[in-house]
Design a protein that fits this description.
There is one protein chain. The protein is α/β, with parallel strands linked by helices. The protein has 2 domains: 143 residues, HAD superfamily/HAD-like (Rossmann fold, 3-Layer(aba) Sandwich), CATH 3.40.50.1000; 75 residues. Helix content is 44%, strand content 14%. It has a 6-stranded parallel beta sheet, with helices on both faces. Strands 2-3 form a two-stranded antiparallel sheet. It is globular. The two termini are 16 Å apart.
Amino acid sequence: MNFQLKWIFFDFGSTIVDESKAEEIYFKEILEVFSKHGIHKHFEEVVERSKELIANRNVKTHRDLFILLCKELGIPEQARIEFLNKWTAIYYTKFWKLYPDVINALEYTSNKYNCAILANQEAYVKKLIYDCFKIDKYFKYIFLSGEIGLQKPDLRFFKFALEKAGCKPHEAAYVGDRIDFDIRPAKEIGMLTFLIKRKALFSILQPIDESEKPHFILNSLDEIKKYL
């Protein structure tokens, strides 16, 4: 396909913001839940089991992962509910930080193209983008699933964003860290795709077919400059 780029859409979690500290604390607090119910597991053991579940596509979100781990170990439902009530978006995002390669990449891309965020995040995250990370100046639009009522990998979410931006799929690129939620739907709709390799839980997924293989792979967000 002949791409004529005018827009670049970015994922947010594990693409622009580093969730690794949040994931580390997440697992430590999961271990505390297990311990309270007489189940003692090592940190590495739980992480490895989590990676197996993710690689086998048994779970799609951190919430799904926690629930399945608890079910495997017989953790009571009430304990699960209490944990998930604590781990809201507001609590989880407290541990986020920008990746060090983000600002330079956004400076470059926003000077050449229109940029937008298209992400599965609660509406609350927009406040972080403006007030905490202060990166709103780089984006013409911020599309969050919690506001729009659609979620990746639903193609309607991508179509909604493209329509609002007034661009066609071949005029847009998508940058994300997940092949299932980011690359496959963006590629299916006709966008240029960039997979950013981050050290995040769901980044370990491997393509099951050509539809999940990105046009380009980035080891750093800065590398996008080579392709634009």
